[in-house]
Amino acid sequence: MAMSLPHQIGALSGTSLTAETGGVSCEVPAKGSSATSAMWRTPMTNLKVSVQKTGNEIDRVSPSPSPPMSPMMGGGMRPDLSVACQALMEAQVEEVVEREYKVRNSSEKEKGVPVFVMMPLDSVKTDHTVNRKKAMNASLQALKSAGVEGIMMDVWWGLVERDAPGEYNWGGYAELMEMAKKHGLKVQAVMSFHQCGGNVGDSCTIPLPRWVVEEMEKDPDLAYTDQWGRRNFEYVSLGCDTLPVLKGRTPVQCYSDFMRGFRDRFENLLGDTIVEIQVGMGPAGELRYPSYPEKDGIWKFPGIGAFQCYDKYMISSLQGAAEAFGKPEWGHTGPTDAGQYNNWPEDTNFFKKEGGGWDSQYGEFFLTWYSEMLLNHGERILQSAKAIFEDKGVKISVKIAGIHWHYGTRSHAPELTAGYYNTRNRDGYLPIAQMLARHGAVFNFTCVEMRDHEQPQDAQCAPEKLVRQVALATQEAQVPLAGENALPRYDDYAHEQILQASSLSINDQSGDREMSAFTYLRMNPDLFHPDNWRRFVAFVKKMKEGKDANKCREQVEREAEHFVHITQPLVQEAAVALMH
């Protein structure tokens, strides 16, 4: 008869262990004791192992540097055996989790909203290796045990093609992909063509490739520029999308070659482990202009931001549009009365509600040109991405920013400066949804966790109304909608809001429609804090149940508690490892 986990550890260690099975304790005799057998009842699935400890011994969550000690093992254990014991414990926990997961889902049809978790921004180091590999491995195992569908990772242009055009180093990413595959996790890979650093939540700095930065230093107009001449190096200006300004290639060609290189390197994982390609199209990976840069305190919430159309390539396009419109005088510059980054709409002539320039013929001309430039940028890159990944079994997605402040005003100024021509009189998200629908892409939207009353009402913030508008636009365009939380949240209140938003119960036409996926921001030590982890596991299970689930919420939470209990050693190890 195969030895159970306590038998195996007891035999290895010569220590008397107790296995708790459904509340019945069964003593395992130490090696060499007079007892020759133990009476065992049929073990329940919530098997856990504990050790009789004495003195001031404390539980450990990972081996100490010297000598190595297994979790929950006391003194007297041979160092070489402690590692084996820990491996046996983790193998048994993983087996129990996987068995329960399969049994629970074997008779259920596909439903609910799969949850992905964002990896740390610096998951791959500058030397092209996985950062905190032990922590990463433990964390991925814990996420899988919780029922998470997969992970989202940034594949940084500034790391992979850092040193020379066309020279790609996928080291680190290849290892990370294999780790995800080993744990049975799917991957949403973000083609991150932007700089990391300077935006909300950026915990590290990864600039654009060196050779790109060199070209931008030679020709500063390759950078987005505001009316005061301030340059933004987060992302190459879309004004030069089709010009060979990067060592003989256009920016769009560079993005396409990078995606093609990714496809060729990871072709064996596409459609199986790698299930989605999110194509970065601007700062923070979002399809927008860098109108509200936080770096150096330029912009602070809830300022209206500023138009980014003053590099020579954008002005050249504006001039052509103005001449075609029959108003060449409108092509020399953008609005000069749109205020500064931290103004509010009523501080400016352009955005004020009564007689504002945004509502004039000139305003309509300029805002149409500005937003269409952004749409055309998205269209060009999507055409390429679709051709590169066609028939590879992966979804293509695009991330849109959730700009919810001043949403209650007539002009929606912060959305306008970001390139979304959305006002009280005009739906700015339907054209975006229709563009994505033409290419079969997923509309990925942020700020799903926010509630209107949590935000400053003097700034007329309305994230719930904004999410509803986007949901209606994607419903009309028949494009899938996926979501993300804009800021880290670990409380039940935010989780309930995400559950509500992801159900897409917005009108009678919603039917069985739900979000296609939700990506949770972000994997870090806080997520593995015991209270946060318990809430997160329950949240994942509720999302997977879907809006028409037969199970009551209390039952789901009881099941979540069970998962938290049996995965506690993994979670403790992940939390400690991530902090070092």
Give the helices and strands, then pairings.
Layout (H helix, E strand, L loop, with lengths): L4 H9 L3 E5 L2 E5 L19 E4 L27 H27 L9 E4 L14 H13 L4 E7 H4 L12 H10 L3 E7 L17 H9 L4 E3 L5 E6 L14 H15 L8 E6 L32 H14 L35 H28 L6 E6 L12 H6 L11 H9 L3 E4 L17 H15 L3 E4 L7 H11 L15 E3 L9 H16 L7 H14 L1 H11 L2
Parallel strand pairs: 4-5, 4-13, 5-6, 6-9, 9-10, 10-11, 11-12, 12-13
Antiparallel strand pairs: 1-2, 1-3, 7-8
Enzyme class: hydrolase
InterPro entries: GH, Glyco_hydro_14, Glyco_hydro_14_CS, Glyco_hydro_14B_pln
Keywords: Carbohydrate metabolism, Glycosidase, Hydrolase, Polysaccharide degradation
Give a structural overview.
There is one protein chain. The protein has 580 residues and is an alpha/beta fold. The protein has a domain at 115-308 and 375-579: TIM Barrel, CATH 3.20.20. It contains 16 helices and 13 strands. It has helices at residues 5-13, 79-105, 133-145, 157-160, 173-182, 210-218, 251-265, 312-325, 361-388, 413-418, 430-438, 463-477, 492-502, 530-545, 553-566, 568-578, and strands at residues 17-21, 24-28, 48-51, 115-118, 150-156, 186-192, 223-225, 231-236, 274-279, 395-400, 442-445, 481-484, 518-520. The protein has an 8-stranded parallel beta barrel, surrounded by 6 helices. It starts with a helix and ends with a helix. Residues 1-109 have low confidence and may be disordered. It catalyses: Hydrolysis of (1->4)-alpha-D-glucosidic linkages in polysaccharides so as to remove successive maltose units from the non-reducing ends of the chains. Substrate binds at residues 154, 194, 202, 399, 404, 446, 485-486, 522.
